[in-house]
Amino acid sequence: MEVVKVSSKGQIVIPKSLREKLGIKEGEYLLIFSRGDVIVMKKLNIDVEEILKEGEEAAKSLGVSEEDVAKAVREVRYGK
Which of 49, 56, 57, 58 matches a 20 to 30 Å C-alpha distance to 8? Predict the structure, then answer.
């Protein structure tokens, strides 16, 4: 167990020992969510960039603009 400090931008550093133990490398994605007052991070073992690219291609083929996708994501995420 280690203690980390949150920066003024809300950033933290994942200690090197944990990155090595979990095989987390620069540029990889982590899923982050909360359970009560606990923050949970999970290494994603999927190619997020490829999934985003496939989603973008599917949206284009359906005639959905990037602006429409961004708006839908905001509505789902923030209720706006």
Answer: 49
Distances (CA, A) of 39 to 13, 30, 50, 73: 14, 12, 27, 22
Closest by CA position to 64, among listed 72, 52, 74, 75? 72
Token reading at 60: 């284009």
User: For residue 32, how many C-alpha atoms fall within 13 Å in the half-sphere facing its CB?
Assistant: 7
- Rounded to two decimals, the pTM is 0.56
pLDDT in single tens digits along all 80 residues of the chain: 889 999 999 999 999 999 999 999 998 889 899 989 999 998 887 777 777 788 788 888 888 888 888 888 778 778 76
- Count the Cβ atoms, other than its own, within 10 Å of residue 72: 12
